[in-house]
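Allow me, if you will, to draw on your knowledge of protein folds for a short while. I have a record of one protein: its chain in single-letter code and its fold written as discrete structure tokens. I should value your view on which stretches of the chain appear to form regular backbone elements. Thank you for your consideration; the sequence and its tokens are set out here:
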Amino acid sequence: MPLRLDSEARAGLLDFVRPLSVGVDGATNFGFVERRLAVVERLAAAALEREPEAAIDAGRLFLLAAFAGLPERRHAGGGRTELLLASAGVPREDVAWLFRALRRFEADPRSLEEGLVRDAGLLESVGAYGITQMLVLGTRERMTLAEMAEEIASRAGEVRFTTDAGRAAGAERVEFSLAFARRLAAEVAEFEATPVR
């Protein structure tokens, strides 16, 4: 039976999760959680458009998207997280599923919900958005432009989407990332070449 979470339960869970995301996106506006939820919802809608009979548990999808990407210590089984989930009306079997899914969805997604959340994370790592994130990170880590170009190409080249919806949404972004990395590397070589004397 699909997990049903009313708007009050969802709001309570987001109030719990938002502060845990501080530092994940380098900002205090807690945009990480909202971004992931928005992308997951768009992917789920696209998946249903492609395959109307697909079974997507909206409650589980919300839970996984809300907690995905947070440091593991913030959502380990037991403690405050489990109490919060219980108070929001999340049945034990769904809580157990969430903790298992959080451990495996990035490496071994076993449900459509897990694949959609994984793909949402991958979409954030490619395209103009992903490139910008990488450039900001590279600047913080004092990487050279050549190193950034290499990192962008490496990350984009390793992206493998799980769902058809993810592949459709990400194909152009992956190509853009790879083209940007090639262009950046070429311009770095051009501008940073040792002049002939």
